[in-house]
């Protein structure tokens, strides 16, 4: 049985590797050789997922070819900015499971980019899945989406464990974009936390944020109900309310006048907000929470100005 390559040794790559190790051999790829050496020696990823022991049979390498071996597919778990370069280095015969929740630097969906590069078996994995909990084996559910339902089932079989329930979907776009947008909404929720706006405001952000996500998914051709699934509503709730979320914590820090950085860990929503806001402006779409988060992260509005812009919008029926 060939080992499953997990490409990216941050928090999520490490948690997925630990989970999949319950089913068979796994090789975790880290881009830095010294870091891979530390993981091999210490059997813990102290930098990105402290407190989770790496099983003895989990291999770690910084050699991409060694990680890939003769595997049929790989999990791609580096931050979205790094995905284009990593995909470019992979053989096109490999199936790729995109696990980042962000867009390529030019604003493209990562699944679209993968197809443009010539990969024929493409899937996306997304859901309410904090690495800190999945790594510890706490119960969670997630979705693997692919136009190729046979490929989705293959990935499902590799990742489904007693602690991680994996559903399949054919709505690649809807599942991918749910994960992309919920990070921006989580930054908004964090801004509300940092401004001490209370529970009512948080509920309003989640609910109106979900409506905004639905409008965007529909415009991009996703299925109508995907936004109400694990990768949409599920992940929005998990991220906007969680003490683990780096996106929520980044918003909270900004509202307090602090730097949004999360100790070197990726905060996808900060970059995504600007890309989505540019898309909305170019296409004449109304994404007000995205716009507020983008302008606050770009320093164009204060958090209080962002709040005022949302509260002073024109009166309208709820369904819009
Ligand atoms: N942490 C979570 O709970 C979680 C859960 C689901 C999805 N995700 C998504 O997974 C992706 C990765 O997040 P993470 O939490 O593992 O990040 P992280 O911040 O914990 O770690 C990022 C890792 O990627 C490496 N890296 C950074 N830039 C790279 C590049 N250009 N090429 C190769 N490697 C690079 C870093 O060295 C580090 O090992 C993000 O898109 C995130 O939204 C994270
Ligand atoms: O810590 P965050 O905000 O990047 O969120 C992690 C996961 O995406 C939650 O599902």
Automatic annotation (TrEMBL):
<feature type="binding site">
    <location>
        <begin position="8"/>
        <end position="13"/>
    </location>
    <ligand>
        <name>NAD(+)</name>
    </ligand>
</feature>
<feature type="domain" description="Glycerol-3-phosphate dehydrogenase NAD-dependent C-terminal">
    <location>
        <begin position="171"/>
        <end position="306"/>
    </location>
</feature>
<keyword id="KW-0560">Oxidoreductase</keyword>
<feature type="binding site">
    <location>
        <position position="101"/>
    </location>
    <ligand>
        <name>NADPH</name>
    </ligand>
</feature>
<dbReference type="GO" id="GO:0006650">
    <property type="term" value="P:glycerophospholipid metabolic process"/>
</dbReference>
<feature type="binding site">
    <location>
        <position position="182"/>
    </location>
    <ligand>
        <name>sn-glycerol 3-phosphate</name>
    </ligand>
</feature>
<keyword id="KW-0594">Phospholipid biosynthesis</keyword>
<feature type="binding site">
    <location>
        <position position="266"/>
    </location>
    <ligand>
        <name>NADPH</name>
    </ligand>
</feature>
<dbReference type="InterPro" id="IPR008927">
    <property type="entry name" value="6-PGluconate_DH-like_C_sf"/>
</dbReference>
<feature type="binding site">
    <location>
        <position position="247"/>
    </location>
    <ligand>
        <name>sn-glycerol 3-phosphate</name>
    </ligand>
</feature>
<feature type="binding site">
    <location>
        <begin position="246"/>
        <end position="247"/>
    </location>
    <ligand>
        <name>substrate</name>
    </ligand>
</feature>
<keyword id="KW-1208">Phospholipid metabolism</keyword>
<dbReference type="GO" id="GO:0005975">
    <property type="term" value="P:carbohydrate metabolic process"/>
</dbReference>
<dbReference type="GO" id="GO:0046167">
    <property type="term" value="P:glycerol-3-phosphate biosynthetic process"/>
</dbReference>
<comment type="similarity">
    <text>Belongs to the NAD-dependent glycerol-3-phosphate dehydrogenase family.</text>
</comment>
<dbReference type="InterPro" id="IPR013328">
    <property type="entry name" value="6PGD_dom2"/>
</dbReference>
<feature type="binding site">
    <location>
        <position position="101"/>
    </location>
    <ligand>
        <name>sn-glycerol 3-phosphate</name>
    </ligand>
</feature>
<dbReference type="GO" id="GO:0141153">
    <property type="term" value="F:glycerol-3-phosphate dehydrogenase (NADP+) activity"/>
</dbReference>
<dbReference type="GO" id="GO:0046168">
    <property type="term" value="P:glycerol-3-phosphate catabolic process"/>
</dbReference>
<dbReference type="GO" id="GO:0008654">
    <property type="term" value="P:phospholipid biosynthetic process"/>
</dbReference>
<comment type="pathway">
    <text>Membrane lipid metabolism; glycerophospholipid metabolism.</text>
</comment>
<feature type="binding site">
    <location>
        <position position="246"/>
    </location>
    <ligand>
        <name>NADPH</name>
    </ligand>
</feature>
<feature type="binding site">
    <location>
        <position position="12"/>
    </location>
    <ligand>
        <name>NADPH</name>
    </ligand>
</feature>
<feature type="binding site">
    <location>
        <position position="32"/>
    </location>
    <ligand>
        <name>NADPH</name>
    </ligand>
</feature>
<dbReference type="InterPro" id="IPR006168">
    <property type="entry name" value="G3P_DH_NAD-dep"/>
</dbReference>
<feature type="binding site">
    <location>
        <position position="101"/>
    </location>
    <ligand>
        <name>substrate</name>
    </ligand>
</feature>
<feature type="binding site">
    <location>
        <position position="127"/>
    </location>
    <ligand>
        <name>sn-glycerol 3-phosphate</name>
    </ligand>
</feature>
<feature type="binding site">
    <location>
        <position position="31"/>
    </location>
    <ligand>
        <name>NADPH</name>
    </ligand>
</feature>
<dbReference type="InterPro" id="IPR011128">
    <property type="entry name" value="G3P_DH_NAD-dep_N"/>
</dbReference>
<feature type="binding site">
    <location>
        <position position="265"/>
    </location>
    <ligand>
        <name>NAD(+)</name>
    </ligand>
</feature>
<keyword id="KW-0444">Lipid biosynthesis</keyword>
<feature type="binding site">
    <location>
        <position position="268"/>
    </location>
    <ligand>
        <name>NADPH</name>
    </ligand>
</feature>
<keyword id="KW-0521">NADP</keyword>
<feature type="active site" description="Proton acceptor">
    <location>
        <position position="182"/>
    </location>
</feature>
<dbReference type="GO" id="GO:0141152">
    <property type="term" value="F:glycerol-3-phosphate dehydrogenase (NAD+) activity"/>
</dbReference>
<dbReference type="Pfam" id="PF01210">
    <property type="entry name" value="NAD_Gly3P_dh_N"/>
</dbReference>
<dbReference type="Pfam" id="PF07479">
    <property type="entry name" value="NAD_Gly3P_dh_C"/>
</dbReference>
<feature type="domain" description="Glycerol-3-phosphate dehydrogenase NAD-dependent N-terminal">
    <location>
        <begin position="6"/>
        <end position="150"/>
    </location>
</feature>
<feature type="binding site">
    <location>
        <position position="48"/>
    </location>
    <ligand>
        <name>NADPH</name>
    </ligand>
</feature>
<keyword id="KW-0443">Lipid metabolism</keyword>
<comment type="function">
    <text>Catalyzes the reduction of the glycolytic intermediate dihydroxyacetone phosphate (DHAP) to sn-glycerol 3-phosphate (G3P), the key precursor for phospholipid synthesis.</text>
</comment>
<feature type="binding site">
    <location>
        <position position="245"/>
    </location>
    <ligand>
        <name>sn-glycerol 3-phosphate</name>
    </ligand>
</feature>
């Amino acid at each position: 049985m060939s080992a499953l390559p997990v490409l990216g040794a941050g928090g999520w790559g490490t948690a997925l590797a630990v989970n999949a190790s319950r089913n068979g051999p796994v090789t975790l790829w880290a881009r830095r050789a010294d870091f891979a050496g530390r993981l091999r020696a210490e059997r813990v990823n102290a930098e990105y997922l402290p407190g989770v022991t790496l099983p003895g049979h989990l291999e770690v390498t910084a050699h991409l070819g060694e990680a890939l071996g003769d595997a049929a597919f790989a999990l791609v778990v580096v931050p979205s900015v790094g995905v284009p370069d990593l995909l470019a280095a992979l053989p096109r015969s490999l199936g790729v499971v995109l696990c980042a929740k962000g867009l390529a630097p030019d604003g493209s969906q990562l699944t679209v980019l993968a197809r443009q590069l010539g990969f024929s078996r493409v899937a996306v994995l997304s859901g309410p899945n904090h690495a800190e909990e999945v790594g510890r084996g706490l119960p969670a559910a997630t979705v693997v989406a692919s136009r190729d339902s046979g490929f989705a089932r293959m990935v499902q079989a590799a990742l489904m464990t007693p602690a991680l329930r994996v559903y399949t979907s054919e709505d690649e776009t809807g599942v991918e974009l749910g994960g992309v947008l919920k990070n921006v909404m989580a930054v908004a929720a964090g801004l509300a936390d940092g401004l001490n706006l209370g529970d009512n405001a948080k509920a309003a952000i989640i609910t109106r944020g979900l409506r905004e996500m639905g409008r965007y998914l529909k415009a991009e051709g996703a299925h109508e109900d995907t936004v109400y699934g694990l990768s949409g509503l599920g992940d929005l709730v998990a991220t906007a309310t969680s003490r683990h979320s780096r996106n929520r914590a980044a918003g909270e820090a900004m509202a307090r006048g602090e730097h949004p950085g999360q100790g070197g860990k990726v905060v996808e929503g900060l970059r995504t907000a600007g890309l989505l806001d540019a898309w909305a402006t170019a296409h004449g779409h109304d994404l007000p929470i995205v716009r507020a988060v983008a302008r606050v992260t770009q320093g164009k509005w204060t958090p209080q100005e962002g709040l005022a812009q949302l509260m002073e919008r024109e009166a309208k029926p709820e369904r819009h």
